[in-house]
Amino acid sequence: MSFSNTMKSDLCRVISEHKCCMFSELIAMFKVNGVVFEENNCTSILKLTTENVNVAKRMYSLIKDAFNVQPRVVIRKSKKLKDHNIFIVSLNINTCSSFESASDKAGLVNLLNNRDQVKSQCCKKAYLRGFFLGAGSITNPNNCYHVEIVTKDYHLAQDIKNLLNRFQINAKATKRKNNYIVYIKEADQICDFLNIIGAHKALLDLENIRILKEMRNSVNRIVNCETANLSKVVDASLRHINSIKYLKEISELDKLSKSLSEIAYLRLEYPDSSLKELGLMLDPSIGKSGVNHRLKKIDQIAEELHKLKEEHK
Ligand SMILES: [Zn+2]
Fold it and tell me: Which end of the chain has fewer CB within 10 Å, C or N?
């Protein structure tokens, strides 16, 4: 199961205590996912679809608890989604007892169309949860940090974005093909979002992945840094040895000053020793920077002599 689906299944275990919150979550699901259509010219059917069996169960029980009716559930195979199951939870508005009067039915339609009906903080959180369960997804944080909610309705996308912004979450909205996408990118922001909608297990999972990722990155940084230093040292050592060998070849090595020639012979004899170690072999011993200075000087002399020879060829 994908990270997203696992997370949604966990989220379905969140218990809504207040009826107001159940309504809010359900309304959000309807808004991003619901369709109302007429059957046989008279029956209005409200339909919700999902690929996640736990989300389907939640849709079912929310409808049952909120409206006191028994919704119908149908399972279909989706050709588009490689034969995955699609769950369709539907509610016959006309025949359900809570909507005996036309005003009740109008009330539900109003509820679905009203943009500001969710007022209290508890309901707003449930509302966001409904959007996520109805049309949201989260990318596996091992790959990247990304949460999105998809809707066909431009204004709804703006509403969702603004609501998230009011919770101090830096959500953005964009258009992708025929859909509007509300998305959250940074790990911190995603953690806040998961906390708000009550996805506490996913929040812990994400935090764990994040820590591991950061550890892996810093270990890589250290290793890279050490490797870079090491190769710098090896390069320098090879350069010095080449210079010294060149001076020997053109019989210039013994013409160097004593301080330079003694370090040159040590370098040739101990190619794997560090500058510090070479310095300690001298009598009197000198420090690392002194050794470095002398070897650089040898490099310079070799380079100048080489240049001269090339010019007089
Ligand atoms: Zn509430």
Answer: C
